[in-house]
Amino acid sequence: MLVLACIPALELGQAAAEDKMAILNLTQDGAVAHLEMNAPERLNALSDEMIAALHAELDALAQTPDCRVVILSGAGKAFCAGHDLRQMQAMRKASDAGAAEFKDLFDRCTALMARIQSLPQPVIAQVHGIATAAGCQLVATCDLAVAASDTRFGVNGVNIGLFCSTPMVALTRNIAAKKAFEMLVTGDFITAERAQDYGLINRVAPLESLQSETSAFAQQIAGKLGSAVRIGKRAFYDQIALSTPDAYAHTGRVMVENLANTDTHEGMQAFIEKRNPKWTQ
Questions:
Q1: What is the DSSP string of 34-100?
Q2: Is the model's pLDDT at 16 over the cut of 60?
Q3: pTM (predicted TM-score)
Q4: At what angle do helices 99-118 and 134-141 cross, to 10 degrees?
Q5: Based on the structure, what is the number of domains in the chain?
């Protein structure tokens, strides 16, 4: 596995003590890139620095042709504890922050979530410990998710008087409305097993094999025709927002686009001839 980069934390407010630490670790194993959030002392909270670093690195990966799948994980005891409440409170005290400052924070977080789903490559959340509030939103936003068996998931903002309204958007696009609303109004955690039953995650693995099972999952996807997966991911999210007739019309055009690819022709011919395809992409 090749270590490609360490992205330093930006020197902003609470990050002064962390300015020499890599806030993101990037490694690549073949066609799979692994982004590890590296602020374990803050449970990988989505601070200003973390949001900026994630968005920048995802932008770079979008332009990396030899990357076909991205794994997102967190260092330390947890995947992600949501927004950095200490930073938010410090911002309020330092600048008497009003609605505009907090709107900017949530706009930047929303842009990060949108970037994950607009990324050409599938993104797999590799989750352990806890994924709470915006951390749970991050799991729900990723295209796929594998969690350690002892992971707990929650949208717990209501417990401190801050309803998880933005995390609710991703959550309600993953699981049934009444189950989502129960999580939102009780602030209770759910187990990994229940999260899988609800549809929030795809797979559950023992903690000791979480990384290997997630990597195997990623490598399986990376072995498919990259152009077909890129076309398919874009179409997947495009069609969700459409009516059924419009979705069929749109995806019919996507199928035609996909069929125009010479590697798709090779894949079909290889299937007919009962051999492995010789793809160029």
A1: EEEE--GGGTT-B-HHHHHHHHHHHHHHHT-TT--EEEEEESTT-SB--B-HHHHHHHHHHH---HH
A2: no
A3: 0.91
A4: 30
A5: 2
Structure tokens at 139: 């799991």
For 49-65, what is the mean pLDDT? 96
Same domain for 214 and 230?
Answer: no
Residue-range definition of the domain harbouring residue 114: 2-222
CATH number at residue 250: 1.10.12
76: Cα separation from own chain's centroid: 18
Instruction: Return the half-sphere exposure (C-beta side, CA atoms, 13 A cut-off) of residue 81.
Output: 16
Q: Which amino acid is located at 9 in the chain?
A: A
| pLDDT confidence of residue 15 | 43
pLDDT at 3: 44
CA dihedral 57, 62, 66, 69 (to 10 degrees): 80
Residues sharing a CB contact under 8 Å with residue 112, sequence separation 6 or more, in sequence order: 46, 51, 54, 55, 58
The candidate with the shortest Cα–Cα distance to 203, out of 138, 127, 141, is 127
Rounded average pLDDT over 1-23: 49
Domain for residue 277, yes or no?
no
